[in-house]
Amino acid sequence: MDKASLKQTSAELKAFEQLCRQTFSCETDTRKALSELEKKIRHTQVFEARLIAQSRYGGPGRPAKKRLPDYQTYRIEGELASRLELHQQRLHRESCFILATNQQDLEALSDEDLSKTYKDQQKAERGFRFLKDPLFMASTLFLKSPERIMALMMVMTLCLMVYAALEYRIRQSLIQAQQTFPNQVGKPISNPTARWVFQFFAGIHVLVVAHMQTLILNINEYHWLLLKLLGEPYEKIYSGDG
């Protein structure tokens, strides 16, 4: 909200400065232009506005000392001040987070716990979005029996639970070891998604030479870093001994 307010305030300041650079032929037009601006601005207000009259002379050269001006022009001077009261009102309104629950016991579920539980739903929603992804290929299965559909949903939910547990373990391991993992654009992060880790590990191949030697191909330092953090069983699998 602060960012949006600063952007709007800067735009209003620019409009006011532009108005102050303009000249008007009469006092009525000057006051009308100022009034129109005051109706448009929301985050600021004009403070100590003054109408400045400037004498103008026709013809070239410096006018004589006692010569009366041929006409006058008008311009606006003043300051633009932020509406702090309005800003605080908007801040208070935007800070509100309304939730409804049938749990009336505040000791059983506090406001903070309720808000946290609600916001944690997005983790499950991201998981189900992953299940719906074409890469998961769930749409390729066709089941007529309700029992088989329920069984498939149970398996998919179990897969989602394993997926979420692995993602949590990867992130916690990176944070505890103060290590990072490159994201899709190569930026080091400590909270990669399990899906990206799966894609990052794609392309690793096992080459068996004459049934005597097993070679792991296309594995790099980031693969080994993550495997080491996850533990010895993971290292064993990718060392060819698993």
How would you describe the overall organization of this protein?
The chain is of the alpha+beta class. The mean pLDDT is 84. The protein is built from nine helices and six strands. Among the domains are: 2-92, no CATH class; 176-239, no CATH class. Helix 8 (221-230) crosses helix 9 (232-239). The protein starts with a helix and ends with a helix. The radius of gyration is 34 Å and the shape is elongated.
Largest sheet: 2 strands, antiparallel
List unreliable stretches of 5+ residues. none
Radius of gyration: 34 Å
The helix tally amounts to 9
Mean pLDDT: 84
What is the first-to-last residue Cα distance?
A: 53 Å
Our estimate of the beta-strand percent is 15-25%
Number of separate strands: 6
Net shape: elongated
Summarize the structure.
This protein has 242 residues and is of the alpha+beta class.
